[in-house]
Amino acid sequence: MIHDLAHIHPPFPELGEEVELFLETEAREGLLLYERDGELHKKPMAPWEKGLRVKVPLHASPFRYCFRLPQGYLGSHGLEKTLPRYDRFFHLLAKPLPPEWALGRVYYQIFPDRFRQGRPELAPKDGAWLYGGKPIRRKAWDEPPGEDGAREFYGGDLWGVLEALPYLEDLGVEVLYLTPIFQSPSSHRYDTEDYLRVDPHLGGEEALRALYEALEARGMKLILDGVFNHVGATHPWFQKALEDPTAPERGMFTFYPDGSYASFWGVKHMPKLDYASFLTQERFVHSPKAPVRYWMRLAHGWRLDVAHSIGEGGTNRKNARWLRALAQAAKEERPDALVFGELSYDTTPTLRAHTLDGAMHYAGFAHPVMEWLSGKDLHGNPVDVGLKEAWQTLWDHYQALPLQLRHAMYTFLSSHDIPRALWRLRGDKERFKTAYALLFAFPGSPALYYGDEIGLSQPNPYAVWRGDPFCRAPFPWDESRWDHGLLDFFRRLIRLKKTHPVLRRGGLLALPAPEGVLAFKRRLGEEEIWAFFAPEGARLSLPPGLDLLSGEEVAGEVEASYLLFQPLA
Question: Which residues form the Glycosyl hydrolase family 13 catalytic domain (predicted)?
Fold first, then answer.
């Protein structure tokens, strides 16, 4: 029994619009059960050539439903003998939804200070200002990152990103995601001091405009990092709040009786915004100069930093309301804007509440895959996550997502916040390839963290298990330091994602496989791609078909640690 995005017509409906739901099944009779106004309504389904179908108005978003069949109840987590909980129903959303350009697109994440230097004269001078009471450091491009972290500047800028576009276009990248670019005293720029000014050390608005226009000319997209949970302690609004308890800006932050204040993760140079404040609402949501609106003229969307924490009173209270408001504000300025969030844990409650277009796929992809392949969790603790547990987690999160968001999830293995995948795998490039082949075969929008494609790793020993700051090394533009075989592998993966619609928007189905092999199939219409992953290697018995990564026809017994296979008709 199969029910996925391809079984919804139209797939991106308006609220109140009639949708037709299709279910592939051998059953010849059944009911649609859907929740409305606290009651469970029933509607008979009609036969169609592959199973059953039914039409129903989309009265609410989310629209929650399941199917009643002779065998039992079919919801998002499979067939059950008794009526499943509502959280195990399918969830369908009405517009606004992810723009169709975003489904299955290939991302490339750039940390601007570390990617490429276009204009050396823009780089901060050594000791130019104090950060955390210590002078900043200007580092040579080939120096490894060290413990000074946010105080270390390498001098990468947006002009450098612009210069690198031919390389990125050749790689096959479709969407750039830049970590923060607005004025800030740190190299990571997550402590913003002016949201309406592109940092002069990155080239200012002139460089952003040039980059945006060059991307537009290439048919590529630009996603900016929206740090709207907190500001930097040097921001003028927070300085006013500190200096004058009667200042209107005081209400934008949460101060406690002892004079302390709410901040991101307790880090005092990142005071947390309070969205209960009308001034915060005006400056970050409603005003034409709210950054989420203002920059939509030079970008195609936002990644919302620590989206799970945004809220009122120093907490995430009314989180869904304010995420929805931020996304709506961006889409009012640019109807095809994409807004996804850093939801580091369970994304399901937030995304089912019709808030964002998707999220960074930590819990539903990055964590289980890397735990399975490395034997350690994000923090370096040994874990016993086997193939079955990994697949169960991938499947569970996929099934729980609203159907229209499944292919808009920012799906990744490495980022600026966590250890690089190659380092976590102790430099094992075959296992690294297995991980990335799985990433590109899985539903969602695959994302590369700059440098992964040429084998960039980390300088710290495994005994020092950390991502930031060691995962933020400068990109080595000396091509003699690149793993060109790895780069070619990534080009082939990206080309497959872009040329096979089934990998962009196809459904996900379990696939029987020998012990020790994680296997699934993607299906869209009559097209199928079978995916196999066995880090220790496995012997597979296959019908005639095509090894998509090698381009060779195969049949019978095949040995592989990863395989993307298209059976021949």
Answer: 109-497
User: pLDDT (tens digit, 9 = 90+) per residue, 195-230?
Assistant: 999 999 999 999 999 999 999 999 999 999 999 999
pLDDT in tens, 31-70: 999 999 999 999 999 999 999 999 999 999 999 999 999 9
Q: Which residues contact 258 (CB under 8 A, 6 or more apart)?
A: none
Instruction: Provide the 8-state DSSP code for 283.
Output: I
Helix/strand/coil (H, E, C) string of 381-413?
A: CECCCCHHHHHHHHHHHHHHCCHHHCCCCEECC
Q: With a cut of 90, say whether residue 569 has pLDDT above it.
A: no
Q: Would you say 46 and 53 are in contact if contact means Cβ atoms under 8 Å apart?
A: yes
Spatial strand order of the sheet with 338-341 comes to 358-359, 338-341, 301-304, 221-226, 175-178, 107-110, 445-449, 410-411
Tell me whether residue 193 is one of the annotated catalytic residues.
no
Catalytic residue from among 191, 249, 342, 357:
342
From the candidates 157, 193, 274, 305, which is the catalytic residue? 305
Q: How far is CA 12 from the centre of its chain?
A: 20
Annotated catalytic residue 305: yes
Tokens of 427: 């430099």
What does the alpha-carbon distance between residue 153 and residue 113 come to, in Å, rounded to a whole number? Answer: 7
Q: Could you tell me the pLDDT band of residue 482, with boundaries at 50, 70 and 90?
A: very high
Mean pLDDT to the nearest integer, 514-536: 96
The rounded distance, in Å, linking the Cα atoms of 201 and 187 is 10
> pTM for the whole thing?
0.97
